[in-house]
UniProtKB/TrEMBL annotation:
PROSITE patterns: ICA
Protein name: Endopeptidase
A Pfam family assignment: Prophage_tail
Region Disordered: start-end pairs: 476-501
Location of the Peptidase S74 domain: 373-472
Residue ranges, compositional bias (Basic residues): 479-501
TM helices/strands, residue ranges: none
Top-rank taxon: Bacteria
InterPro entries on file: Phage_tail_spike_N (IPR007119), S74_ICA (IPR030392), Tail_dom (IPR010572)
Length: 501
């Protein structure tokens, strides 16, 4: 049932000041903001009302009348709201300034009641009559105005002082101007450094630098397509589609067990995030990757050094094609899918062509081999002091199979079907050449030296053969001896007979 609103003005004679009733003055007292019950017997309703005004005669020191009514909340009922301003402001919807104005209006308009003490040097507004028991206190004096929730002696958490200082948990304003804003923590929805087209905008966890009203730098974080927190710095765009066209992006994945990050230049945007045309990626595990859609150029004015503990590996379309590394014996190897190029001090600096695992030597196919044979490179040049023919005749040419061909033979034998001919060494290549008996002293022969000895032996053989033939059968002059020195017969000119027509 709705209760009617009513105000009552009660004129009375204060009996507490009379001699007859002075002993009963403490039985009942009514003060400002006290609630009393007014009975309307004819209407059958009771209305609770508060003391909202009074008239006092300071000469006679007695109250003349009081006004009571079911008015707005008193000061003592709402003063607690002052201590909750921070919570209310943080939860207010819409315009913060409008909400703050409405909140302040509500607090002030409902702040009736309390006890006012006026002194020559100060004014006190308290929640109790006694200064000693008062908790909520407003004090105004020559040095300023302040509010304390802990009594007259403070501390005053809200204050305006004569030296130009304002002390408050929150200051809400339409425009706040000043040369310096200084503090441990400044909280707000958005900070903008200038009203021009060039400014810095700070909003929540984002910082944006504007030039000509366009975002040139973005600093912040967001959740990527994998729902990971990604702190990001964007140069030349914002955290939207403007950052997807040639912006420099520095990012870090911070929610993963292994932290990683990178820097790149963007070329577009898809469902998984930004696409990089070129980027440098690195992880907490010590891995790094330089990636580019087109070309990577490394340029140095003096030298360029690459250091690696294991191997340099080369790939094409994710397929391994080569490696450069050092073997356990200290050899430098270029490893290819089916062969190895090795440089070893054990072979006196000779380049070796071996199988991919380095177990055996491999062959070479070439259109020509040219040996550097200039006199400029040689010294102590002299004729051969031994019989090249005799040495060549000492060579023992053998036929053999290479050990690295034997696995192929075994594989063919394993795959042979029943009834097929037996597979022998004829199924693998047969080679011809020298077999070195003293492998501890040397492990190969020089083809150029061997060919040179063979050439010298052939020359020696031809010379000896010609000399032997000269001894057995002197060379005869060419032609017919009978007709030598005979005058040759002259031919007659041919006759031409004219035919008759």
């Amino acid at each position: 049932v709705d209760q009617p609103k009513a105000n009552y003005n009660v004129k009375f004679q204060e009996l507490s000041q009379t001699e007859e009733y002075k002993d009963y003055k403490h039985l009942q007292s009514v003060y400002m903001a006290d609630t009393v019950t007014v009975e309307h017997q004819e209407d059958g309703i009771d209305i609770k009302a508060k003391v909202i005004a009074y008239k006092y005669d300071p000469i006679k020191k007695e109250y003349l009348d009081i006004t009571i009514g079911n008015f707005k909340e008193s000061f003592t009922d709402v003063s607690g709201r002052v201590d909750l301003v921070q919570e209310e402001l943080s939860n207010m919807p819409g315009s913060i300034l409008d909400a703050a104005k409405a909140n302040a209006t509500s607090l002030i308009n409902s702040g009736f009641g309390g006890h006012v003490r006026i002194y020559p040097d100060r004014i006190l507004i308290m929640d109790t009559k006694d200064e000693k028991s008062a908790k909520k206190v407003w004090q105004w004096n020559l040095n300023g105005l302040g509010y304390s929730s802990t009594g007259v002696n403070g501390p005053y958490g809200t204050a305006i002082t004569s030296d130009g200082r304002i002390v408050a948990d929150f200051i809400t304003a339409g425009t706040l101007s000043g040369n310096l804003v200084q503090g441990g923590e400044i909280t707000g929805a958005t900070l903008r450094t200038s009203d021009s087209v060039n400014y810095v905008n700070i909003s929540k966890q984002f910082i944006r630098l504007y030039e000509s009203s366009r975002t040139r730098v973005f600093v912040g974080y967001y959740k990527n397509s994998r729902n990971e927190i990604q702190p990001t710095l964007i140069l030349g765009g914002d955290s939207d589609s403007t950052g997807a066209n040639g912006a420099i992006m520095v990012y870090q994945f911070s929610d993963t067990s292994v932290k990683s990050g990178g820097i790149g230049i963007t070329k577009g945007l898809d469902g998984n995030g930004y696409l990089n045309a070129a980027s440098l990626y690195f992880s907490q595990t010590g891995n790094a990757m330089l990636d580019a859609d087109k070309m990577i150029v490394l340029n140095a004015q003096t030298d360029m050094r690459f250091k690696v503990k294991d191997q340099f590996r080369f790939y094409r379309n994710d397929n391994w094609i080569a490696s450069i590394g050092v073997s356990s014996g200290g050899d430098t190897d270029i490893v290819l899918p089916n062969a190895m190029i090795r440089n070893s001090s054990y072979e006196n600096g000779y380049i070796q062509i071996k199988t991919a695992l380095g177990s055996y030597y491999h062959g070479i196919i070439a259109s020509d081999f040219k040996v550097s044979s200039k006199e400029t490179y040689k010294t102590n040049i002299r004729s051969i002091a031994f019989s090249a023919l005799e040495k060549v005749m000492e060579w023992e040419i053998k036929q053999y199979n290479l050990k690295n061909d034997i696995p192929k033979l075994y594989e063919m034998r394993m795959n042979r079907k029943e009834g097929e001919p037996t597979i022998t060494t004829d199924a693998i290549p047969t080679h011809y050449g020298l077999v070195i008996p003293k492998e501890a002293e040397e492990n190969g022969v020089g083809l150029y030296g061997m060919l040179s000895q063979l050439t010298s032996a052939f020359q020696e053989y031809v010379i000896k053969t010609d000399a032997r033939l000269e001894e057995l059968e002197p060379l005869k002059p060419k032609g017919n001896i009978k007709h030598r020195n005979r005058v040759k017969r002259q031919r007659r000119p041919s006759r031409h007979v004219k035919r008759s027509s």
